Amino acid sequence: MTTMTAADSRSEAKEAYDAFLAACPSRALLDRISDKWVSLVLVALADGSRRYSELSRQIAGVSQKMLTQTLRILERDGLITRELTVSVPVRVDYTLTPLGASLLTILAAIKDWAEANMDEVFVARERYDEQARSASA
Amino acid sequence: MTTMTAADSRSEAKEAYDAFLAACPSRALLDRISDKWVSLVLVALADGSRRYSELSRQIAGVSQKMLTQTLRILERDGLITRELTVSVPVRVDYTLTPLGASLLTILAAIKDWAEANMDEVFVARERYDEQARSASA
DNA sequence: CTGCATCCCAAACGATACTG
DNA sequence: CAGTATCGTTTGGGATGCAG
Questions:
Q1: Distance A120 CA to C3 C1' (A)
Q2: CB B79 to CB A113 under 8 A?
Q3: What is the CA radius of gyration of chain A?
Q4: Nearest residue to B71 via CA among B98, B38, B47, B99
Q5: Which strands sit side by side in the sheet containing B50-51, from one edge to the other?
Q6: What whole-number distance in Å separates Cα of residue B37 and Cα of residue B103?
Q7: What would the pLDDT profile of A76-134 be if each residue is shown by its tens digit?
Q8: A118 and B CB contact within 8 Å
């Protein structure tokens, strides 16, 4: 019991770290916006409410499953609201909450950096790949 | 050939959308920082160079594989540099490039929003879960 | 129209063992 | 010390079918 394998101490460190991460707000936010569809939905709702089917069309390429799942997550987090209109057929509208709207400023910052600097990243990638090719040749 | 199944048109739309996404700088940046370890490495390098083993210790919980992989990606993107010192044993230092350092401001913005607002998100989650529980009871 | 349940495949990741 | 190679498991996510 006084002896501990390397695997033991590693898994112990991992548990402590996981706990740390779970409590970290930045990590939690990163987990949210890193979701492939979250940012797209948020942006789609930026200028007002949208129906489920409108989102489905506007965010081409998203599956029903992922759209529904994404909307649930955002609703649960208080970033959007879901309004059900009981008629035939049913109608559901999604709207940003003030909290959700405030997240758009973060997205805008990301967009700004990307548009200003991603070109440089792409160039770096090509340079790296080119060098890797010539090294292996 | 004039007829197209729903599945066909969907996969066609998906291809077009994927192409659109691949060319989108914001998407590319999101793909980077959404990586679980990228932001942690970037922050770890914020105040200067670090050796591989230092990073490995500082970012507890990361496996060798993921750390190496993350460092390669960041190096390829021109966000960090890798300096090899040939001695026995070998020594490798990683350092942020100006480009990588500029990304820290984005990370800081995320951190600020998270610290200011994630509490509200957590409360929303509890409220949502509580309601879900009482609804199923 | 909106959404849930199921199946299933591919990619991501961790653990482990081995190398210059 | 700083990786690379391989394997097995987990997870994400699409396709499909069904339901209120």
A1: 43
A2: no
A3: 22
A4: B38
A5: B50-51, B91-96, B80-85
A6: 14
A7: 999 999 999 999 999 999 999 999 999 999 999 999 999 999 999 999 999 999 988 88
A8: yes
